[in-house]
Amino acid sequence: MAGSTGGYRPVVAEQEVAPVRRGRSIRRSGRPAERVLAVGAALVLAVVLTGCGQDDAPAARRTVHFYAALAADDGAAACADLAPGARQQVEDQQGAPCAEAILELGLQAVAGPVSEVEVYGSAAQAVVGDDTAFLSRYAAGWLITAVGCTPGGGDRPYTCAVEVS
Hints:
Nuclear Transport Factor 2, Chain: A; globular
């Protein structure tokens, strides 16, 4: 190679190129088993996205935010998660602005995820720890209408520390 001025050129084998047919794909994507799995995965995803439970995530987030605000002693943030009637009840009950009054109610500041959410149209029930909250869907999203609720037992209704009457 002494005195050669050309660079390295790899040798490429000549390949036959299949003719392109217009309007049809030459190669199918994947083997039959791969196509079945892909279709199955798409169907499962569709069921998950359109099935029950799609509306419960915003209600759960609102509930978790409320309890996190209580744990952080952030009364203003906790009151922002309450429906207008519930905020008014907190103020009337305690004789103070909601941001102060909500922290004086002795509600448990439960930290952790929502263990159960049930959505019934524009109403929802969320369980965090031993506490149950009830929510309603407003134009602004899910807001808490009752909180600090415990089951009454049997056929009796829940008893709540705060609820819209």
